[in-house]
Design brief:
The chain has 14 helices and twelve strands. By secondary structure, the protein is an alpha/beta fold. The longest helix has 17 residues. The protein starts with 9 loop residues before the first helix and ends in a 5-residue tail after the last strand.
Amino acid sequence: MTETAPRPTLEAVAERAGVSRATVSRVVNGSHGVREALAERVRRAVEELGYVPNQAARSLVTRRHRAVAVVAAEPETRVFADPYFAQQLRGISKELTAHDNQLVLLLTEGREDHARVGRYLAGGHVDGALVFSLHLDDPLPGLVRSAGVPTVFGGRPDWDDGRGGVVYVDSDNRGGARSAVHHLAGLGRTRIAHITGPLDQTSAADRLAGFRDVRAGADPGLIAQGDFTPGGGERAMRELLDRCPGLDAVFAANDLTAAGALRVLRERGRRVPQDVAVVGFDDMLPVAEQTDPPLTTVRQDIEGMGRLMARLLLRGLDGTAADDDTETPSATAPGVVLPTTLVHRATA
């Protein structure tokens, strides 16, 4: 068996750099008060020796684990099948990696998993949490609050306990929905239907509200509930066509829903966009560019939302303010709402 070479120690770095052990410790832990010339000698010695700080010892000094829990309130089958989550996780991962933090992914399949996540967060394993895809009556916000860890939420929260200070990042779901429906109406479509997302999530509720802002007197039969999946889009589209065969446009609550709706329209012999125009929401390129025909949709910066969630959390942990005032939550407006844009393709 090959013997493993001993790991370089803090003392070895200090000897190589010609400085004290305390100076090396301050440089490695990112503390201030070390002259740049000395700090550069320490960094060079660290690189030459291949020194890797002991994270457990480092945590005792900095009181930071450099790990962030990412909590998705969805089962793993949904998270790994939906490209929305892949894009959001990519943004979070990029930002955490850029600041030398580890991502710890926690998924919830059921109520027992909520308790497990709460125990993990309360156990002091991570510095903070990023939580998204919450549903109505979800116990996660309460568990996170009880754990006492700094948290940024993805999506507008639907609770208000009077305490304030809830930091979140969201897209302009309501405004984006309005732009989609205005576009369809501007094409001369008069029987515009809407396939919702799961209405126990604020993003779906806000998109439905945006639809109603433009079509206040719409026939209730032109609204069918989906679940943000292609299968849900198919079921809802069949329901709408059976109920309102004369519909001439559909605003789908997300791109996956739109993809399912397009399949049913093709099966039923409806031409898109000649007979029925379709607009989605998200602009997930693996979906929107691969539908037949390519999907007109409302773009939200999903990866950018993930990066901003992580950035706000890390800045809060470091006690620093954002460089851009538009990204800095305030006591009166703790949420950051990013704009959306309509992307024109072939379905509308």
